[in-house]
Amino acid sequence: MITPAPDLQELNEKIAEASAFADVLTAEIEKNIIGQKAMLNNLLIGLLANGHILLEGVPGLAKTLAIKTMATAIDAKFNRIQFTPDLLPADLVGTMVYNMPANKFEVKKGPVFANFILADEINRAPAKVQSALLEAMQERQVTIGEQSYKLDDPFLVLATQNPLEQEGTYPLPEAQVDRFLMKIVISYPSQEEEKLILRKAIHEDFSNIKPVVKPGTILKAREMMREVYMDEKIEQYIVDLVFASRNPENFRLADLKPFISYGASPRASIGLAQSAKALAFIKHRGFVIPEDVRAVAQNVMRHRIGLTYEAEAESLTTEYIISQIMNHVEVP
Q1: Domain spanning 8-221 has what CATH number?
Q2: Distance from the CA of 160 to the CA of which of 51, 59, 99, 244 falls in 20 to 30 A?
């Protein structure tokens, strides 16, 4: 069923009014975070699209500070969990504790009960912990004993991976990686940005952030974001991008076939649509354009495409595969 096009001028005005808070929120976060505009933008996209984010970057690039600052600016609860090889599921979700005076077991909730969770070095924890986190990410609930408990809303998991150290790490299963809306690779700041970071660290503190948005505003924005119009041609473009990762030979990309072991899942299509809508919303626009899809394609698809040994031998990356796909799939 094709949705008829709405009155775009009226919708634009409606979305512009509903998304005004995004500029205020971004400005408040940027008091603490210098540079890393792309990371902040993607954090906001993940928050609005109700998806989790996997961050990859060397230590010291303000990953923890960014999500902590965002949580403070939204007046939401933040918890940081350091993943280690000896971490247990109970350390994450909580456990049953015996109350001697009351002569009964009571639930002691774990750190996952918060709006924003930083899962630091997520690939250092064993499979049991990953499965407990997976339930929290996918079902927005955790099970303690025989009871299930709903998590707070909004709920965002920001997981980090260190690309340098591989000792003592457990590769994340594909099923879990696919649950992340985006995988963002963070790079170093520029010289000018690093100079500003240095000055701020020496002369100011990083605790001057004030709450400027309420969690309820985020939930309302998510509802409003559904109204952002996506034309059927944009939907087809998204499907073409995803199918080109599975059957490149159908899109004049037969030379990529030996390098792809598996293509992006249907979650990639959903993720591209949701992220493109969120980006249009942040830009105060009531409709999605192809550039919105292209802007989020790398982050949404890079962790959903598997490479063959031939690709690794040729030093090809998923970023290269996605770039080739975007260069060859016809833009509406």
Answers
A1: 3.40.50.300
A2: 244
Of the candidates 49, 54, 106, 70, the one whose C-alpha atom is nearest the C-alpha of residue 224 is: 49
User: Any idea which residue has 């792309």 for tokens?
Assistant: 38
CATH number of 228-328: 1.10.8.80
What value does the CA radius of gyration of the chain take, rounded to a whole number of Å? Answer: 21
For residue 140, give the DSSP letter: S
Q: Where are the CATH 1.10.8.80 domain residues in the chain?
A: 228-328
- Residues 127-176 have pLDDT tens digits of 888 888 888 888 888 888 788 889 888 898 988 887 665 665 677 777 77
- Residue 63, CA distances (Å) to 55, 101, 113, 159 in order: 8, 43, 20, 9
Q: How far apart are CA 287 and CA 60, in angstroms?
A: 37
| Cβ atoms within 10 Å of 76's Cβ, excluding its own | 21
Q: 226 to each of 8, 194, 280, how far by Cα in Å?
A: 14, 38, 11
- Bridging pattern class, strands 147-150 and 141-144: antiparallel
Rounded to whole angstroms, how far apart are CA atoms 68 and 78? Answer: 6
Residue of 244, 262, 261 whose CA lies nearest to 253? 244
Q: Where are the beta strands (DSSP E) in 68-135?
A: 78-82, 94-99, 104-109, 116-120
pLDDT tens for each residue of 76-99: 888 998 888 888 888 888 888 888
Of 126, 120, 92, 122, give the one whose Cα is nearest residue 108.
92
Place of tokens 């970071």: 197
